[in-house]
Amino acid sequence: MNAVLKSVHLQLTRRCNLRCSMCGQWGEQGYQKARTGDPEFGLEDWRKVARELDGLPHRLGITLWGGEPLMAPFCAELAAELKGRGHRLSMVTNGILLAERAKALAGHLDSVFVSVDGPSEVHDKVRGAPGLFKRTGEGLLALRAADPAAHVVVMTCMTRENEGRLAELLPHLDAWGIKNWIIGPQMYLSEARAPRYEAFTRAWADAPTATASWKASFPAGYGKARRAELESLKRARPDLSLTFGSNRLSASGVEHWFEEPDRNLGGTCFTPWRRLSIQSDGETSFCLDITDGSLGNVRTAGVMGVWEGERARAFRGAIEALANPACVRCIWNLHDDV
After folding, report:
1. How many CB atoms lie within 10 A of CB 242?
2. At residue 98, does pLDDT exceed 90?
3. Which of 100, 134, 210, 220 could form a disulfide with 31 if both were Cys (CB 3.0 to 4.6 A apart)?
4. What are the φ/ψ torsions at residue 226 (nearest 5 degrees)?
5. Which residues contact 202 (CB under 8 A, 6 or more apart)?
6. Does the bond joining 30 to the residue before it have cis omega, within 30 degrees of 0?
7. Alpha helices (runs of H) in 67-184, residue ranges in sequence order
8. How many CB atoms lie under 10 A from the CB of residue 264?
9. Where are any strands of DSSP class E within 179-303?
10. CA–CA separation, 181 vs 331, rounded Å?
């Protein structure tokens, strides 16, 4: 497969204003808590990245994320510049700061993905503080008022807290004018795959891992219950564009996702041949979540130096050989392309 860079994710900051229970970055076992490294990029660093991307023969899909990207003080300014360069631009946000930033962002984002975990009680419990659901809702309304053309999507991660409660979100989605809802299964490492993943990372990158951040297990019957819930939502609201993390993952696939934690669901990962994620200190990965072992740092190697480098080639070879145990429960393994 030819490696053609089509998509770039820019982690504007690793900082976040929430402590969500299921989060691999800032949850109870989150790897960001103990992370140290180079200082985070500022606006001029990202401008340098943007200038290098200008050298490509095609425009890219660029996603701004974090941490919480709106905590980067230059977020709106960078978004305007990237959009002005002709790229397709999206953002993943928890929505807490949207109300105050919506006007500054208006016209710069093609798509905005906002995380909502369930009705008010559930969302605030998962996110770690009261009043967060209300603030996210206000942010969604402010964004839609400021930029009616933006494609706004609500994303929900299936957690223990929202089991059986997702239907309670429907009237809120209607009130916010949301027509697109992604309900994604939690990505995780099983007890069996965790040590194999650690061995994989040592082999290709000789790097420590954040395995504890991603380990999870689910009781028998959990997947079956989630499947029934999702099928009920589909029947209740055929007018909604409702996907389960990927267009290639069905409700029955969600059942297998949780009930058979080590079964390969048959996907093919295109990510290492299509997307690069640049973290807030310039380190890089193909993956967005389980990011152990850098491909290199764009501060020194540049974007294309990383993309075409030895570590990138080694990782692609490992993925072709189905050597990464984390891929079995990664939603990007079930996307047709990136």
Report:
1. 16
2. yes
3. 210
4. -65, -35
5. none
6. no
7. 75-84, 98-105, 120-127, 132-146, 170-176
8. 12
9. 180-184, 241-243, 275-278, 284-285
10. 16
